[in-house]
Structure formats: structure tokens, C-alpha cells
Amino acid sequence: MNAWAFYGLAVLVPVIILYLLKPKPKELKIPSLMFIKEVEQRRRFSSFFKRLFRDPLLLLQLLILTILVLALAGPFMLSQETHDIQEAVAIIIDSSASMQARDVQPTRFGAALATARQIVLDLQDNDHVTLVLAENIPVVALNKGTKQQALAIIPSLRVKDTPTGLGNSVILAKDILADSEVKKTIYILSDFSNYEGSDPVAASKSAFAAGMSIVPIVFASEGENVGIVSGRAGRRLDQCFAEAIVKDFGNERSVNIIFSIDGIAVASDTKTLRTGDTELFSFSGDCTTSEHTLNLFIDGSDALPVDDEVWFILSEQKQFRALLIKERESADYIRYALESLPNVQVDSAIPTVIPSLESYDVVVFQSATPEALLPGTFKLVEDFVRSGGDAIIIGSEALAFMDPEFLPKLLPVLPAGSSKVSGSPQLLFDHPILSDIDIESLYFEEYVRAFEKEDAITLATIGDSPLLAYRDLDNGGVLYAGLGPNATLGGFYLQPSFPIFWSQVFDWLGREEAIGSLSYFTGEQLPIFLNQTEHVEKPSGEVVETKNPLLDEVGIYNLPSFGRHVAANLLDDRESDIESISDADALELESSYSSKLEEQDVQRELFWLAALAALFLILLEWSYYKRRGSL
Amino acid sequence: MIDTEFITQLKKLDLLAKKKIISSYAGGKPSLQQGRGIEPVDHREYYPGDDPKFVDWKVYGRTERLFIKRFEEEKSLTTHILVDSSNSMDFTSPRMKHSKFDYASMLGIGFAYLVTKENEKFAVGTFNDGLKSLLHPSRGRKQFYKAIDLLNAEKMSGATNLQRCADEYIKLIKTKSLAVVITDFLEPVDTIKKGLYRLARKTKNLIAVHVADPMEMKLDWQGDMKLFDLETNTAKKIFFTPGMRRDYAVRFMAHLEKVRGICDDIGADFFSVPTDQDIFKVFFDITHIASRGHHAT
């Protein structure tokens, strides 16, 4: 109400004064009032009000003015309304991998879409609708759209192979609805089996505290699922290998996994899993140095197909030309190991005669002594590394006696002689170089002492010294390995994993920095910062143009502009566990959504009613004037 | 005020006087008192309509002219002229030349002229809520001028009560009489009825003349009014609407109809005369009615 309008009542005062100042009535002497009195007596009913209100016109006009003043004051009436309340609705639809489960027909996601559609149909035409897909990164499919827009968009929504960011979606919906001044409701359509990011319970409580209604709707039943929850693949010498950990979330069942290389099944394995069991399935097959696509999939069907397969891309192996610098009498174990690598061509050189390094990619110093290497050699090596080559230097006690300005200058460590303390290495990083290398099982009777330089990355230590470390040096890098072919130095060279170590070293040296790993988890974005929009072909065949490709489907993505492929997999045991409902009871779940028809205090403006009343009274006054002959 | 101009114009009534209209009230009407056992004391000329059984055939034998025996009780007809002089009679609307009392007085003097011309006795009295002024019955020109003086000297006062006036006046009526009541009848019907009844019972012959100003009959005004009752000297504020005007006219006429009905019941002649009507026309109307058997229409 506009309280200032009440000052308009002051206009009643001059009106009253005006009536008080009315001219005196005409005076007339008549023989008798006998008949006048009879007439007035007859009109007793109408004259009753005249007795009470001597001048009806005055009262009428005062009433009209009062009503007009009240109309300007903006009167309103609070009434309980159960319909026609404008509402802002946010519908969060869990589009994570678990929503593909078929325990709810047609799928959990399909059922959620149907429910979302029904929610929208129940809305009024003037309600606002926001649609949020709860992927690991929430996606706003419709921002404060109309009912009709929502109905058009819902059928086009697709489930993804990613985990869900339910809490983040609730926060997003809360932020979108925050500035609405109408009734706000957030519907959460999910199986509530898993989430990443913010806690959806905490987010829901925050939204509730902001005056929003939270309506969680569960789409889950008892589905049987067995899925691949972990996996990896790689090369070992001339073989490709792939491994998968399979977990049974349902009843005991026999699981058959088929291994394929480039679409050709090369192996399979069947194991029986009981409820909750996990099993490792390992496969290998012949591979060339070319790029290969590896696939593991669970033969058969279950409630959630998306976790029944994993994909790996093994990039084309880079060919290396390596120069092994060793003294004549040194053991050839490293040479043998290098020669076993299919992508490495090894040349040997015996100091002091060192060939030009231009045609080599990697220089391996098996033994370096001050006497064997001329100063100029180290300068060449330094230039070689700084210009993009890689140097691998096997640690030895002799390094401590070298001119620090020479080879030690390149090292990621500062050699300090040797230590006669025995011990076993400690792994600091689960680095690809040491993948499947049980280095900690080695026993060193002595070790090369060294001190880590500031820019070094140490992967493993022995005692107080770096055992395996590297550093970048301009365009190249230097790898230090205190794993010489010496029995007292752990005897690593005698281990079957020794050539695998070297294979992994060269794989690591040949990694594509621009893309990095070729295997990702669904929900991740490719760490590619493209300067312009590029085409990305998704596993489903959909082609998107984007600068930051989102890996929301399990399978192989083609990046034509890079000439490469990448793979994305779910590999999420929480997402695969479709039976668990985490923290759902805290949200007071309902199996069906309640009616949106609620009683609310609705403010009904009475201005028009007052204006109509005033108009009616004005017409009444006019007719009164007319009747008495004044008009 | 009865002015000399009016008196001069009274000669217009000479023709009526020759017709002995007043006397006809004495002879023509069935008498409530039969003259049995009353000796004839006089004769008068026969007029058509007289009862043939009262023709004196002996005189006819002698004169070959028809004469009617006049008995003792028929000998004299005193006309009692009562004029309302209450306050309500002192009303003159702007367009009127005479007040209601002046008009009523002229009517009364007219009747007195007729009576004098017929050499009959008459009395004149004024009344309001009782008898005010009285000129005792007598005949002749002198009586006539006394009547004029009485009426001219009359002052309006008080309210009207015909019943009380009749109660007082009938005590003065000794002989056969004709009563002429000239009033505006602005009083309750009940008192009018009782007054007329008593007068008619005493006089056997009654003429009731209602006088009213045209304005008071139609009330041709509206709006905010403050009305003063001349009769009761009270005031009333009213917003007079056309609806109220219509109601008033209806009630006014209904009142007169009631008075007319009373007169019919008692065999009195009733005349309603607006004060804008020519006095002499009124008398001609009266004679016309009189020739039809003295019934007002």
C-alpha cells in the first residue's frame, strides 16, 4: 500500500464545508403541511436514511472520494490461492553413467526424462523452467525458459558416460533461481548412487535455507551389474598388454572378458565372480610400433552396459636412435636391453672417440670416467641435450671425481661418491618409467651417493640419495639412474624387468607433451588449449566443434587436427555400483513428486475493485440528480 | 377584501335571484319534517316541481293561477353562511388576486345577496377551531352590508375544526335553515365528517363549498424547501421531488373525495372551487346543480 495516498482524505474537508455553506432552502408558506406530512410518512423507508443522513448527496460524494483515496493507496487482500502461482522450477536430471542402468524401464535416465516432462506439463504457462544435466560438470540445458521450451528440449537430452556432479548441479540451480521472486522449486531426478564434487545434501540444505523447495526423486531399483572398474594398457617390447579389474556388484556370475587389438579379438578369459568380488583380467598380444587400439569388454548384458568395456590407445612408438657410450670392458647388459627394444636402434661408442650426436635421439652414458671423456665431449653432449636430445647417465662413483663443469653439470644430481650402506630403494612416484618395476625389492649393498639438484625430479631414492632422477635442460632432458650393471648396486640389470625398464624409459622420452596421455576418464576435458575451434569426433559419431573437448562418452575420440586418437573410460566403481544410494535418506526421498499446488498467500490488488466501486457510486449520484430533476 | 367592484357585479346574480335558488332549498327538497297538522299560513306561486298536493285549488278557482300552500314550518328559511377564517385561509399564491378567505367571503356574500334578493333571512359567521364571529339572522339590505363589514373585518387565526364550530353553531339554529359552509377543509376527515353531519342534521339542507388556491392543489415547486404551515405555524424542511409532488396531488384529491363522499351520505351539495375560477360561474354551476335536485357532481 501507498500510505501517502491517505493524505487524499483531506479533500473531504472542503467538500463538507462546501455543503455546510450551501444556500438556504426556499422558504414558502403553505396553508397546511397536512398532506406533505402524509407524503413524507408514506416514504418512511427511503426517508429513514434521510433522517439518518440528512443529505445523501453529501454522503455519496464523501464515499466516492474516500473510495478513490483508498484506491490510490493500493489496497490488497491476502487470499489463499491454490493455483495460478507463478513458479520458478529447476529440474536437475542426473545424466551420469549409472543412469543408463536398465533396472528402471526403459532406463533410469529415460524414466527421469519422462518424470521431468510430467513436471513441466504440470506447470502453468507463466512458470519458468531451468533444466540442468547433472554430469560431473553441470550443464544448463535450459535457463529460465518457458514450459513449451522445456517440453521441446527434454526429448533431446542425452545421458552421458560420466560420473555425476549432483551437488554442483544443485548449487548451480540454486544460483540460477536465486534472483526469482516467485515460488522456487528444485527437482533432483537421480539414482543418488554416486557424486563428485560438492555434497548434494549440503547443497540442498543451502538451497532450502534460501527459501527453495527441494524435491528429490529416486530412479533406482535392484539391478544386476558387473563392470570394469580399473584398467590399463601399454607396450612391453613387441607386445601390447591390457589389464582390467572387474567387480561384481550383483549376484555371483561368470564373467567373460574379450581382448581385442584394433578390433580383432585376440584373447578372452572367463572367471567366476561372487557378489562384491573383484578379479584381474590380463591380456597381451603382438603389436607393432604403430598406433593400436586395445579394447576389453565384458561379454553379456547387465543393468549398466557403459562400464562393460574399456578402450586404450597405444600411440605409435617413436623410433629412437640411441648412442651407448661405454668403455670396452664394461658389461653389455644395457646394450642388450636397448637392442631388445623394437623402436630403438643402438649404436655403441667407446670413448674417447665419440661420433657426431646429430643423428641420435638419446645418448646413454653407461660408464663415464674423467679419463674416458674429453672435455669437448661433454660440451657436445650439453649442446646436444639443450637442443632437444635426451641423455641417460648411469650413476657411478667415478662421477664424483669428474670436473663439475663437465658431465656433472648436466646431471639432475650432484655426485658425492659412494656409500657403503646397504638398503633398498624407495619409490617416490608411481612414474611410468617404473610401472610394473618392483624396484623396492632390489637390495643394494652399496649405492652411489648424490645430492638432488634444485630442479631435479626424483622418482626413487636409496638411502639419502636419489636413485632415479631427471631434469629438463632447455629442450632436452637428463635422466640419472643409479642402477648400474653392478651386482652390488642392486643387481637390477639381472632382473627380467631390466629391459622393460628401458622400454618404459624410451616410451616416456617419446611421450607427446601436447596431448599427454591418450587415455582419460569420462568427465574429463582434454588438456588441449586450442587456439581455435576444432572438430572432435566422439565415440557415438557425433561431431562437435569445440576448443575444450569434454570426454563424456566411453570410447575413442578422433582429433583430426592432431592426427591422433584418445580414449575415455568410465572406470568408476562408485558409478558402477548402481545399487548403493549414498546420503539419499538425508534428502528425505520421495518415490513420486508431490503436487505443486500449494496454498500461498497471494496478494490480490484491489485497486480496480475500488475504482469500479467509485464509478458505480458516481453513476448512482448522477441518477439521483437526474431523478430529482437537477439535470 | 370584498371591494365595491365585486358588490357592483353582484347584479349578475339577479337572474339567479329570480329563480329563487335559495328558496328552492326550502321547497323543493323532501322535508325531513312533514307539515302534518300545521296550518297553512301563506301562499306562494307554484313552480314546476312543487308537490301538486299542496296546490291551493280554492285560490286557483278564484284566480285561475296556481299557488302552493305554505305551512308554518315552511314559512321562513334562514340561510346560515359559515366562512372559514382559520390561518390556512389566509393563503394567496403569487398568481392569485384573492386569498382563499377573500374568495370564500365573496362566495358567502354572493349567497347573502341571493338570500336578500329572495327576501329571506340569513346569518353570517366565521369559524376556525370554533365559532368566531357571528351576524345573527336577519333580512334586508342592512343585514347584507353588515355581512360585508363583518367579513372584511375578519382576521385569520387558528386552525380549523369544523366539528367544534358545528357543535357551537347548531345551538343557534331555531328554524328551518340552509347551511352554507365555505372552507378549505384542511383538517382531519373525522372532524369534517362530524361537523358536516351535525350541521346537516340540524339544517336539513347543506351546501359545502371547498375553496383552494390552485398552487396548493398542484404544488408546482421542487427542491430544497422550508415550508411553513399557516394553520399550525410550524415549519418543515424538505427536499421536494417530483415523486413527492405526485403523491401530494393524489392525497389532496383523495381527501376531497372523502369529503365529497361524506356530503353524498348526508345529502349535502358539495362544490370544489379553485380560487382562480370566476365567482359568478360558480353560482351558475351551483344553480345548474340545484336544478338537478341539489346533488353535487
Please give a structural write-up:
The complex is a heterodimer of chains A (631) and B (297). Chain A has 631 residues and is of the alpha/beta class. Chain A folds into four domains: 3-21 and 33-75 and 606-627, no CATH class; 87-223 and 589-601, von Willebrand factor, type A domain (Rossmann fold); 225-315 and 517-577, Immunoglobulins (Immunoglobulin-like, Sandwich); 320-509, Class I glutamine amidotransferase (GATase) domain (Rossmann fold, 3-Layer(aba) Sandwich). Chain A is built from 14 helices and 30 strands. In chain A, strand 10 (253-261) and strand 11 (264-273) form a beta hairpin. By secondary structure, chain B is an alpha/beta fold. Chain B has two domains: 4-19 and 76-291, Rossmann fold, CATH 3.40.50.410; 35-72, no CATH class. In chain B, the strands form three sheets. Chain B has a six-stranded mixed β-sheet, sandwiched between helices. A two-stranded antiparallel ribbon of chain B has the order 1-2. In chain B, strand 4 and strand 5 (131-138) form a beta hairpin. The chains are: A alpha/beta (631), B alpha/beta (297). Chains A and B meet through strand 1 and helix 2 of A and strand 8, strand 9 and helix 10 of B. Strand 1 of chain A pairs parallel with strand 8 (223-229) of chain B.
Distance between the termini of chain A: 38 Å
Kindly give the count of domains of chain A: 4
The strands making up the biggest β-sheet of chain A line up spatially as 16-15-17-18-24-23-22-20
How many β-strand stretches of chain B? 10
Low-confidence stretches of chain A: 589-598
Second CATH tier, the architecture of the largest domain in chain B: 3-Layer(aba) Sandwich
> What name does CATH use for the topology of the largest domain in chain A?
Rossmann fold
CATH topology of the largest domain in chain B: Rossmann fold
Shape of chain A: elongated
